[in-house]
Amino acid sequence: MTPEAVLSRPARVLTQEQREGYFSNGYVAVESLISAGEVARIRAVVDEFIEKSRSESRSGDVFDLASGHSAEAPRIRRLRRPHEQHALFWEVATGVLADVAADLVGPDVVFHHSKLNFKWNDGHDQVDWHQDIQFYPHTNYSPLTIGLMLQDTAFDDGAVGFLPGSHTGELFDQYNDEGQWIGCLNARDVEKLDVRSAVYVEAPAGSITVHNCRTVHGSPPSTRADGRPLLLSAYASADAFPYTPHPEPTPQMGQVIRGKPARWAHHDPRPCLIPPDWSGGYTSIFAAQAGEEGSGAASDTGAG
Ligand SMILES: O=C(O)CCC(=O)C(=O)O
């Protein structure tokens, strides 16, 4: 659906101004969408996973661990596929957040993936400027990600920053000059952008940001050791079909969670960079940007 067609439909959650803001800036923030009680319920489950991680010493199928992780001081970078790990995360992904997605992609919404990112001030938790769609190309650019803040989040916690309007600009190459996947823009391309115009969304727990899959975004390192849990859930219009292997396949991927399945694919003519072939596995953006083994960083474009 075009933005005009989406905007002509009645909204479920967002104001018309918020929807228009999303289409012109490539992102929108909504303060305190989720109640304190609901955040506390989610935090209790998050805490259970942090406890579980104490018995893990290496990154695996559930936890992506930072280098300083130990039983005494758990340092999870990411809980992978939270919606698959606990029913509450699926409930969250398919609740009001799915209505927000419908306000921005149209009434027919499919689920793409979820992840729970942390920042512990371990010195490695910066997320470099990147665009998401090169990780999972689709036939159009409706995919979007909703970040739900599970604690009050300020710049010093590593709040995510967005470059307004960047979703209408260039899609950048996220391989380096050696053809290795780096999962972020290279320094030359970053120089072309006005990163000083980035808007870092600082907001209380329960607030959300929504960003389009083409929007350039990133986050600074945290200077506080309190974890900064950020639950990210990604959706697309049902008429957007992926054409490369999903980086984190789950039984719920592609599930229609609002409206109905599409009978016709919508194709956007703008080209998209193809990522490495994730069918052999994927770890996380943190691992890719750090060039860690198993992140796809060793793959070249030719091999896929
Ligand atoms: O966790 C963050 O600060 C941002 C994560 C992000 O942009 C991503 O995973 O695509």
The count of helical stretches stands at: 8
Name the CATH homologous superfamily: q2cbj1_9rhob like domain
> Which structural class best describes the helix and strand composition?
alpha+beta
Proportion in helices:
10-25%
Quick structural overview:
With 304 residues, this protein is of the alpha+beta class. It has a single domain, classed as Jelly Rolls (Sandwich). 21% of the residues lie in helices and 19% in strands.
Structural write-up:
With about 300 residues, the chain is of the alpha+beta class. The protein has a single domain (about 5-290), classed as Sandwich (Jelly Rolls), CATH 2.60.120.620. It contains eight helices and twelve strands. Strands 1, 2, 3, 4, 6, 9, 11 and 12 form an eight-stranded antiparallel beta sheet that branches. A four-stranded antiparallel beta sheet has the order 5-10-7-8. The longest helix is centred in the N-terminal third of the chain and has 18 residues, at about 35-55. The two termini are about 30 Å apart. The model is unreliable at about 300-304 (pLDDT under 50). The structure holds 2-oxoglutaric acid. The site of 2-oxoglutaric acid has 10 residues, from strand 10 and strand 11.
Strand and helix layout:
Blueprint: H1 3-7, H2 16-25, E1 27-30, H3 36-53, E2 63-65, E3 76-80, H4 82-85, H5 87-93, H6 96-105, E4 109-119, E5 127-130, E6 144-149, E7 161-162, H7 187-192, E8 199-200, E9 208-212, E10 217-219, E11 227-237, E12 256-258, H8 285-289
Antiparallel strand pairs: 1-9, 2-3, 3-4, 4-11, 4-12, 5-10, 6-9, 6-11, 7-8, 7-10
